[in-house]
């Protein structure tokens, strides 16, 4: 396992938006395709219920009722009903929204933060540079950046627990262990066990969010400035919640980048390519790693809607 403290994981989606497929994957069709607004629920042995992103909520429609914010809704048409909300889905699992201790935000696009106000007791964890990139934008630039400030609660700052790029460091291991892990990373497969074995060090600078070896944030900028993914392990599998580094498992598997027009909404196209290349490298080095894009129907069909332990 990549982490020392296993958790349980539940994957779901709160509504979806539609795009022509060709915008999200080279060679795709012109027909509109549904992209679920994914979120993850994590059951931590000490900190209880934690969310990674939130998907849509009805507030998205309130915030995009008039121009210029309405352009967001027109460019990415959204299909959503109240029973789709993350809070309602948790309720059906007998988890009260008030019991969610933390919400980890990958980045500040509306489809990832729209429901943060549904969790009144949560603290918000995010890379500070991600919020700094959008918080002072004028209305038009904020819409282009996919940020709707009205989605955040009034006590946002008081409830925030940001970390910084300087907090992202390589895993600290002893010199001997680092040498062994590097050898495993290069050889990829252990001849003795026949199992893939890759150390966390292979994933570059990380931040141990709770200091207990359970959840590790990794910066994956490009789609949005300061976007983070989350490395975690259940007792049986390793997962990387990669947010919008790719929009589908197919794009990753076939190395098919988005259409150049998709670059309009990106913070840095070159950085996006670098992050996607890193994701492909990790997938190749560790085929057992379960990579979870936020908007992938294939992932939800395979792993969604049940507790992964």
TrEMBL record:
Alphabetized CDD domains for the sequence: metallo-hydrolase-like_MBL-fold
Molecular function GO labels: hydrolase activity; metal ion binding
Catalyses which reaction(s): 3',5'-cyclic UMP + H2O = UMP + H(+); 3',5'-cyclic CMP + H2O = CMP + H(+)
Gene3D superfamilies, per the entry: Ribonuclease Z/Hydroxyacylglutathione hydrolase-like
Provenance organism: Paenibacillus bovis
Domain Metallo-beta-lactamase: start-end pairs: 47-280
Function of the molecule: Counteracts the endogenous Pycsar antiviral defense system. Phosphodiesterase that enables metal-dependent hydrolysis of host cyclic nucleotide Pycsar defense signals such as cCMP and cUMP.
Keywords, sorted A to Z: Hydrolase, Metal-binding, Zinc
Required co-factors: Zn(2+)
Similarity section: Belongs to the metallo-beta-lactamase superfamily.
InterPro entries attached to this UniProt entry: MBL_superfamily_lactonases, Metallo-B-lactamas, RibonucZ/Hydroxyglut_hydro
Keyword Aminoacyl-tRNA synthetase: no
Annotated protein name in UniProt: MBL fold metallo-hydrolase
